[in-house]
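Final report, Chapter 2: Outcomes

The project's central promise was a pipeline that accepts a single protein chain and returns its three-dimensional structure in a standardized token representation, suitable for archiving and comparison. That pipeline is now operational. To close this chapter, we reproduce one record exactly as it appears in the project archive, with the input sequence first and the structure output second.
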Amino acid sequence: MNVLKFIGRRPFACVRLVSSLLSACVFALWGTARADAPGEIVVSFLEGSAEAGAGAPAVFKPLAVGDQLIEGEQIKTQAGARLELRFASGTIVRVGENSSLVLTEAPPVGGRFRAKLLFGNFWAHVRKLLVGETFAVETENAVAGVRGTIFRVESSSDAELVRVYEGRVHVESRHAAHASDLEGNHELRIGKDGAHGVSTPFTPESEKKSPFIQWVHERQKDGAGEERDRGNSKEREHKDRERKEREHDHAGTVHKE
């Protein structure tokens, strides 16, 4: 077929054809970028009801497994709910019932994460961070920063709790010049008045009656836990090295030009 004659006879059909092809290409590229986005956060498990929203005032919509969360969104879980989030980096976050948190920093390019726990339970297994990366959870009275660890933050009406299971967490007071480094099997309690406690040890037996922690352990036993994510983290580190090498090679080429 003579393409020029076809265009002359059916200009609108050609416009629709080109538009469709461009849309298909953009969709394919978007899907690839989304799958490879190092900062992607996806709902991997949900029991009960949870919702997320952003804006002022925030417009909340029900969450479902597979939904992607972005920076600036507030997450709420209802009574009896259990929510699990998986990061492209391999990090896992689990949120208990009647909880609310805001993703204050979660760029698509990854490298930084910061959430504010308004109330409820927040548990995380943070895979080992690379140089320059950060992961922090803040409450009304404190900020907990980690490098790669398993920890939990709880905010209730009368106190706040930071509990470390593995690794180390650095806790800083938001209202006074006070900081603590918590080792594994240690906790720190902070009063709602900002009164900073001291690091004290705890035993696993003290959490046996916690429905939230029981669920966390069940998820680990079900194979949804951290052994698989250690492998994912190694793969991710390998991809990060390859990406940095490509960026370095590209910068060298541009410099030569």
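Archive annotation: Residues 219 and 225 are 6 Å apart (CA to CA).
This record, like all others produced under the grant, will remain available to the consortium after the project formally closes.
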